[in-house]
Amino acid sequence: MIIDKSNRQKEILQLFKNIDISDLSVKKYFTTYETPISLSQYYRLKKRFGQQGITGIEDNRVAGNARKQSPQQTKLIRAVISYNQHLTPKLLQKELQDKWEIELNTSQINQLRRKFNHPHIKLNTDTIQSVEFAGIEIFSALVHHIGIKEHWSQTIKKRLTLIKQSELYQNKNSQIGSHVRHRNGRFSSRYNKLKKVREMKFASIDDKVKEKDFVKSSLYQTTDANLERKNLSVLLLPLVTNNGTSRSINKPLGNALQYACGYNYKHSTIDKYFTGT
Questions:
Q1: Which domain holds residue 151?
Q2: Is residue 135 located within the same domain as residue 90?
Q3: Same domain, 226 and 160
Q4: 271 belongs to a structural domain
Q5: What is the pLDDT of residues 249-276, one digit of tens each?
Q6: DSSP assignment string, 68-126
Q7: In whole numbers, what is the pLDDT of the chain averaged over residues?
């Protein structure tokens, strides 16, 4: 049905005139008489007429306002929405505009998705975990591959077995008693005053080893897995200390041991491992 724009304008202008000369209120007039427009349209067009004159009540729907998609466009939109359920409304809007020259806002796209029963489906993306010190893991993998860690651990265990079979493996310091250290781990003053301790304080390493109590050495209580892990941490010391630039591994760079060997060793632990205490 083709609407004559001039006739519609005349009807609206006549309606304005009739309401102005009528004794009835606007709302009462619309309930009493048949009108070409609704009450809400009257207020909207009356305001436009006061602002723009006759152009304010022109019917511009033919020029493009409130136009609907053709059946072919509807089928095309449905196919695009069905094929691109993984796209967000914003990306789907760009897809329709760039490839098919169809302009829809995101609200319209969401409405059409509900209408066509093609909701937005979020794709399962693989979670990529970024870790620090990833480069050090390459060195760790190389150590595992060529067997340095296992060979080193086997050498230490063989040496421990030999010491256990020798005279060095005797509890020579058992006579000192439980007063050797305080609860906080420090040597007691009573222990430091012992004649034997004072005499051996500045002795050579070879002489001290003869008097060492290997029974209490933590190496004999260390499991094979822990022994290999500590050996790996020792191999990584040049990396976590910048080739000795840092004198301690209790720094951010030292945290790389957590990723490389599975445990974030501290300086005191590695120091005790070196001394065999």
A1: 131-171+214-277
A2: no
A3: yes
A4: yes
A5: 888 877 888 877 878 888 888 888 877 6
A6: ---HHHHHHHHHHHHHTTTS-HHHHHHHHHHHH-----HHHHHHHHHHHT-------PP
A7: 78
